[in-house]
Amino acid sequence: MERSRATFPTAFGDAIRSVYDHFHKWKAAEWSNWCQIFAPVYLKGHLPNEDYKEFMTFVSAVRTSCDYTVTSSECRDIRQSMARFMRYYERRYYRRDWARLSAMRPVFHSLAHVAECIEDVGPGWVYWQYPMQRLCGLLTSKNHLSFTIRTEEHVAAGLDGEESEIEEEAPRHVDGAKIYEIYIGIVKAYQNREKGKELSDIRLSETSDGIYLKGKAKTHVFREAETSCLQTFFDTELLLKHITVFNPSGEGAPLMPPEAIPSSTMKRYRAVFVNPDQASESFLVPSADMSPRSETKTASWVRYEQVLNEKEVRANVRVDEEDEEDDDYTRSAFGEVRYFFSISPEEGHVEAASRLRPAYKMAFIEWYPVYADGLLVYSDVREKPKLELVPVEDIKELIGLLKKEQRRYIVGKTRSIQWKRDR
Length: 423
Description:
- The chain starts with 18 loop residues before the first helix and ends with a helix.
- α4 packs antiparallel against α5 (114-121) and α7 (152-159) packs parallel to α8.
- Among the domains are: 130-198, no CATH class; 211-422, no CATH class.
- The chain is built from 11 helices and 14 strands.
- The radius of gyration is 26 Å and the shape is elongated.
- By secondary structure, the protein is of the alpha+beta class.
């Protein structure tokens, strides 16, 4: 598991710790990640097939119950899935044998009431204990419960980079109101610092698509393969918009004159994808070429939409039933973002430039073929990537990789990517 630390984004949670060595120290958030993300990957091949199948039924119910919105029909599915898993577990492991009674932990009984709790008081996020556990961790992070109190004035000063702290020793019995005050102060300081760090220049610009290219920039001269990708992209754009460009070279030559394609651009450090209606769906993607090299974290892998060509459509390359009515014939693809940039045709070369976009936000991505392992999706570490030019708006989510032997299993923030649903 710990081999996957470098490819598990910070936005997904704490650094991965081995379940074998550190399970007794795991926090609630780590157990949540284990159930929804890690276990489906690392238990596959170790559990008997029948056990793994029933365990995945339980995992599916947990994922649904952790959603921010749970419908009545989903509550029924949760109740049925939990009941099915409990019956199977009791039949498989307990077997009504007194000697096996230790396998029936009291906490298992709570699974029977998950759907009932959701119906009574709402989804799990309303009352789960992750925030309280974080608070306890903050209060006990220093010896003898010493902690830092940050007043409103200190928080304000901290936003300017001049943080001032007051060390106070906690009494043996800490007043609940005081704990709450400390917690709120720390949370506000963290939120303000993160907003100032990640979104500082977003306030200075407006964009209709909710996508911002930001951070440090660096001049880059396009290589031959990249220029070829740009040529293909602009030709396709002109064809889709039914724009006729005078082509003195005659039929069969590129629609976009080669001299209209810029020879260089400014690499951008990262892209921020903001969803104003659902903050939890916003995410940030740094580019691999512009990120500092680190052995601890890399977070440049993404899932994006890829349009199938005519040959792939005829071959019926993994087009799901629900997508068969879609004329676009798109599928999910996975790769690592090399860098982001903005580009537009050189002035004076495109006759119908007014009908093209003023600028295109693009990303060069190293695309890797993926394969199915049951419901899971993985790429082979021995395969070489293929360079692709992708409009930034086609990027749908940040993903992580879990390494297992020669495979890299693809996971999302709260789930392992599944072949049928995500492909």
